[in-house]
Amino acid sequence: MTQFILKTDDGYSPLILRIGLGLVMSVHGAQKVFGWFGGYGFSGTISFFTTTMHLPWIIGFLVIIIEFVGAIALLAGIFTRVASVAIAGVLIGIVITSHIQFGFFMNWGGAQKGEGIEYFLIYLAGMISLAITGGGVFSVDRSISKHV
Questions:
Q1: Are 136 and 14 in contact (CB under 8 A)?
Q2: Would you state the pLDDT for residue 148?
Q3: Which parts pass through the membrane (predicted)?
Q4: Does residue 64 contact residue 45 with C-beta atoms inside 8 Å?
Q5: What is the distance between the alpha carbons of residues 140 and 48, in angstroms, rounded to a whole number?
Q6: What is the distance of C-alpha 25 from the center of its chain?
Q7: CA distance 82 to 127
Q8: Cβ neighbour number for residue 61 with a 10 Å cutoff
Q9: In the 3-class helix/strand/coil scheme, how is the chain assigned residue by residue?
Q10: pLDDT at position 74, please?
């Protein structure tokens, strides 16, 4: 099982994908954990999830941890498959709870009441791709898998 989780190919595509997606997710994680980039920090985000979204606190906590730790894991390429599946789960939850009712398209022109799902589908496709390929070159997974 460990070998499957850590196994990756020597491709550069997974590297590019995980760095790009990891950078984007790291900003969202930093918003939720530290309040950086206009975020509300840990307590503000937990409060939003539990009070406004009516989610159990454990779900809010897991979303915050997955976005923050998952982004770091992607950037380092450690447990890339696990991080990708976890982030994919968060993305599916976000779509179901907050965006599907606004349709497909993002709110580019400000005509909708919220954002559609197109961004999340693109991000989800990247997560699925990384779950299949692993972290690629220059990943901790690749270094470890050579010795397992």
A1: yes
A2: 66
A3: 57-78, 85-108, 120-140
A4: yes
A5: 35
A6: 5
A7: 10
A8: 16
A9: CHHHHHCCCCCCHHHHHHHHHHHHHHHHHHHHHHCHHHCCHHHHHHHHHHHHCCCCHHHHHHHHHHHHHHHHHHHHCCCHHHHHHHHHHHHHHHHHHHHHHHCCCCCCCCCCCCCCCHHHHHHHHHHHHHHHHCCCCCCHHHHHHCCC
A10: 97
Please give the average pLDDT of every successive group of 10 residues along the chain, which has 148 residues: 81 96 97 97 97 96 98 97 98 95 88 90 97 94 82
Any idea which residue has 């991080």 for tokens? Answer: 83
* Region of residue 50 (left: phi > 0; alpha: psi -120 to 50; beta: else): alpha
Q: Return the pLDDT at 6.
A: 87
> Structure pTM?
0.92
Tell me, what's the pLDDT at 126?
98
Q: Are 145 and 3 in contact (CB under 8 A)?
A: yes
Report d(CA 113, CA 120) in Å as an integer: 17
- Decide if 115 contacts 106 (C-beta within 8 A): yes
Q: How buried is 45 (Cβ within 10 angstroms: 0-12 exposed, 13-18 middle, 19+ buried)?
A: buried
The type of residue at 129 is S
